[in-house]
Amino acid sequence: MALAADYPFLSILWSMIVFFAFVVWLWILFSVLVDLFRRHDVSGWGKVGWIVLLVVLPYLGVFIYLIAHGSEMAQRSAKQAGDNRAQFDDYVRYVAGSDGPAAEIDRAKKLLDEGTINQAEYDSIKRKALAAAG
C-alpha cells in the first residue's frame, strides 16, 4: 500500500495515456508494414528503404509513410476487402448454386434416368462430385 501512496492519480492517468498512445502507434506501424509488403508497385529495394527508415526513425518514418501513401493505403485496403468478399460470394454460389456438387449429381441422375449413362458411370460422377465438395 505504501507504493500506491507514492504514485499520484495524475501520474497514473499520464501513464495510461502514454501506454495507449504507444499501443496506437504500434497498430499504425504494423498497418504500415502490412501495407508496404502487400504493395506490388514498390521494388524490393524500396521496401528495404522504408523498413530502414521505420527502424532508424520510427515515429517520423510512420508519419512520412502515412503522409505520402495514406490515401493509397485506404484504397488498397478497401480493394482487398472487396476482393475477399467477392471470392467468398463466388465460393458460396459455387457450393450452394447451380455449379455445386448437388447440381452435378442432379444432372447425372437425369442422365441416368434418360438412359444416357449407366449406374456405374452415375456412381463415378457422384463420387467425384462429393470428393470435390469435401
Attribute tags:
mainly alpha, single chain, 0% strand, 6 helices, 134 residues
Describe what is shown at a glance:
The chain has 134 residues and is an all-alpha fold. Helix 3 crosses helix 4 and helix 5 runs antiparallel to helix 6. It contains six helices and no strands.
How does this model look, in words?
The mean pLDDT is 88. 86% of the residues lie in helices and 0% in strands. By secondary structure, the protein is mainly α. It has a domain at 2-69. Helix 2 packs antiparallel against helix 3 (44-56), helix 3 (44-56) crosses helix 4 (58-96) and helix 5 (101-114) packs antiparallel against helix 6 (119-133). The longest helix has 39 residues, at 58-96. It has helices spanning 2-5, 9-38, 44-56, 58-96, 101-114, 119-133.
Which range best describes the helical content: under 10%, 10-25%, 25-40%, 40-55%, 55-70% or over 70%? over 70%
Ranges with pLDDT <50 over ≥5 residues?
none
Order of helices and strands: HHHHHH
| Beta content | under 5%
Determine the N-to-C terminus distance. 61 Å
- Main β-sheet: number of strands, strand sense, barrel status? none
Count of runs of 4 or more consecutive helical residues = 6
Number of strands: 0
Which structural class do you get from the secondary structure elements?
Answer: mainly alpha
Overall spatial form: elongated
Mean pLDDT: 88
Oligomer state equals single chain
Alpha carbon gyration radius: 28 Å
